TrEMBL record:
Superkingdom classification of source: Eukaryota
Membrane-protein topology: Lipid-anchor
Highest classification ranks of the organism: Eukaryota, Viridiplantae, Streptophyta, Embryophyta, Tracheophyta
Cellular component, GO annotation: endomembrane system
Protein name: Ras-related protein RABA6a
Length: 177
C-alpha cells in the first residue's frame, strides 16, 4: 500500500477551479478516496489532498488543491495558482451559467497560472442527463477553441473521474520529463 511518506520521484501541484457547486470537492474526494488512500484527513475543509500515482515507472505525488468555498468570495489569489502545473476547470452540465463562466476562469488561469499549465475542461454531473443545459459538443468545441483537453464526468457515478485526473497528471509528466 502507498503511504503518505513514501518516497516519490516527482511532486506535482494541481488546482481545482470553477464556479461554486459544480462538484469540485466531490470530484476530489472521489479521486483521492476511491482506489487509493486518502491521506489522514477528509477533503472537506482542507485545502488539498494527495494521491500517489505511478506513471511510466515514476512515482508521482499529486497534490490537488481545492478552493474550499472561496470561489464564492472571489478570494482565490495568485498563491492558489503558484507552482501549479495543472488544473481541472469544472462546470456543471445542468447549469449553463457555470459553462458561460468558463471563459472567466480561463482568463484568470492565464493571468495567475504558468503559461504551460495543463488544463482539463470538465463538464461534471453527466448523470443528470434529463436536466442537461450544455451538450457535450459545446464543451468539446470550447475546449478546442481554448486549447484545453475535455471530458465529461460524474462524481456521483464515479464516471471518468479517475480518467480526468490521470489525463492531467500524465500530460504534466510528459511536459516536465
Ligand atoms: P463545489 O462547490 O464545486 O466543491 O461542489 P460540491 O462538490 O460541493 O458539489 C455541489 C453539489 O453538487 C453537491 O450537492 C453534490 O452532491 C452535487 N454533485 C457533485 N457532483 C455531482 C455529480 O456528478 N452528479 C450529481 N448528480 N450531483 C453532483
Ligand atoms: Mg467545494
Amino acid at each position: 500500500a502507498e503511504s503518505f511518506d513514501e518516497e516519490c520521484d516527482y511532486l506535482f501541484k494541481a488546482v481545482l477551479i470553477g464556479d461554486s457547486g459544480v462538484g469540485k470537492s466531490n470530484l476530489l474526494s472521489r479521486f483521492a478516496k476511491d482506489e487509493f488512500r486518502l491521506d489522514s484527513k477528509p477533503t472537506i475543509g482542507v485545502e488539498f489532498a494527495y494521491r500517489n500515482i505511478k506513471v511510466a515507472d515514476k512515482l508521482i505525488k499529486a497534490q490537488i488543491w481545492d478552493t474550499a468555498g472561496q470561489e464564492r468570495f472571489r478570494a482565490i489569489t495568485s498563491s492558489y495558482y503558484r507552482g501549479a502545473l495543472g488544473a481541472l476547470l469544472v462546470y456543471d452540465i445542468t447549469r449553463r451559467a457555470t459553462f458561460e463562466n468558463v471563459k472567466k476562469w480561463v482568463r484568470e488561469l492565464r493571468q495567475f497560472g504558468s503559461a504551460d499549465m495543463v488544463v482539463i475542461l470538465v463538464g461534471n454531473k453527466s448523470d443528470l442527463s434529463h436536466s442537461r443545459e450544455v451538450n457535450e459538443e459545446e464543451g468539446k468545441s470550447l475546449a478546442e477553441a481554448e486549447g484545453l483537453c475535455f471530458m465529461e464526468t460524474s462524481a456521483l457515478e464515479n464516471k471518468n473521474v479517475q480518467e480526468s485526473f490521470l489525463q492531467m497528471i500524465t500530460k504534466i509528466h510528459e511536459i516536465t520529463s
